[in-house]
Amino acid sequence: MSSRGKTGTLTRRQLLSGAALGGVSLTIGCRLGRSSAWEFLSDEQARTLAALCDQVVPADDFPSASQAGVLDYIDRQLARVYRRHRAAYSDGLVRLDTLSRTRFGRGIAALSVDLQFQAVTAFAEQDKSFFELVRNHTLEGYYGSPRHGGNRDAVSWRMLGLAEPPIRGRAPYDLTKGSTS
Amino acid sequence: MRSLLQFAALVAASLAIAVTCALSGASYYYSSQHGQGCSSCHEMAVYGAGMHGSAHRNGTCLDCHEASLATKLRHIRVHLTRTWPETIRLRESDVFAMTPNCQKCHQQEYASWHAGPHAATYTQIFTNAGQNSRQHLMDDCLRCHGAHFNGAVRDLVQPQNEQGPWRLVRSDLANQPTIPCQACHQVHSHGTPQTRPAARISVGDEPIPDSLAFYDRREGEHFAVAALALPVLHEGARMVSVSPDPRSALCYQCHAPRPPDTGTPAALNGWGSQAGSGDDRTPTGVHEGLSCLSCHGGHNQNARASCKNCHPRMSNCGLDVEKMDTTYADAKSPHNIHWAHCEDCHQHGIPARENAPASPLHGALAGN
Prior knowledge:
The complex is a heterodimer of chains A (181) and B (368). Chain A has a domain of 117 residues. Chain A is built from 7 helices and no strands. In chain A, helix 3 crosses helix 6, helix 4 packs across helix 5 and helix 5 packs across helix 6. The radius of gyration of chain A is 26 Å and the shape is flat. In chain B, the strands form 3 sheets. Chain B has a two-stranded antiparallel ribbon. Chain B has a two-stranded antiparallel ribbon with strand order 3-4. A two-stranded antiparallel sheet of chain B has the order 5-6. In chain B, helix 6 packs across helix 7.
């Protein structure tokens, strides 16, 4: 059979070659997609958000917000129950970076901690609603359950003196003592 | 008609080739590069990064994880439909599939664990007539036994009463371990591969495995031993000296004391949790301050020959400590080895030490 179809349509060889190529393409197709480790945020947005969150909960004897996984928490929620806040984050983080570049000549992620504090202080006055939103989400992530991505190793609970997981003996439902509970 | 059949056959053959290429290519791609292929799906990136920072960094995903055709297809479906959960966790079937893979590299540890009580199966734990007739089956059992089981205790064993006879609802779990490796080890935890020590004879403390962690069923997360709390315990009103060994914090998650029972002196006087209450076995008396791991093996909990770690063959009294009247020598002894006190043997009074100041421990004990 010639390599060209009799009627100008797909030949058997072309079809089989195409199928094989399609299979390989499907295999490596994921590689061509977005490579960010985040579900919603871009890497640049994540750096800006980390700087903002770390001014809400900075590191001391205990980890900062970003070290405790707050960005994981916010990112996962923005991909799920907080979808409604996506636009607010996309726009708000741009505004924060713009403010930082205007006042300090660099994006907030590249500033020193002191300048980050000044930038966030100014931003909190200028853009109160978004700052409040991020602050609330930061505190949710830092003090909430580790199962949602933040509060890594329950670090904030240990900071508060709470043992997590708590040491608790098994529930004393001993039937030999007449308990019916 | 013939050309239609030829076309149908061609389409079918093409699909078969495409699927074969995709699956075999995907298998190669995702099993190569130490898991970087798996991590290229961004929902897996954080888990891949964890593995690459762990003591298991030289392995690949498929060294530990099961990856059957059905699993791969499920992963593809979840990825394409973006329906992965907020936190991706191992299912119980994933855990059971992994356990034999742990054995491939950790044969000695596996054999030790398999010979010990922590390898007890679902049948042994949940259809135990002696236990079930004394205590209600409850979801809290799953905190330590079957922590990876995805369901409530009623989904696992019936009937939920104290008469029995009890049977497993999930008969496929009958011979599976209730405390698999992953109950106490977090494979992805940050750590470094073991290396040959610089000195031929190490004099440092025994290293604490980076992977040691408690799997908390409620959170679906591991908590590293360094993050786990040690209990504050009392013997009567006296605070007990608890070993600071972080490894024992892992033991305390299940071998835990209970708050004082109502009406007991400890409850009436507000003394707090008592050593030896509940499933706690914190040493008091002559062994106070020892870690669980001072005597018990980490994998099989065996305490055989542990006395010799500290004691000379003969005690100062000229007695063989292994043959003294304790539960070490005889399980029916009234003197539990965990809280044997000096006066258990020196019933006519504890002799004063010669040429040595009185031990503060003895003073504290004498005050009880």
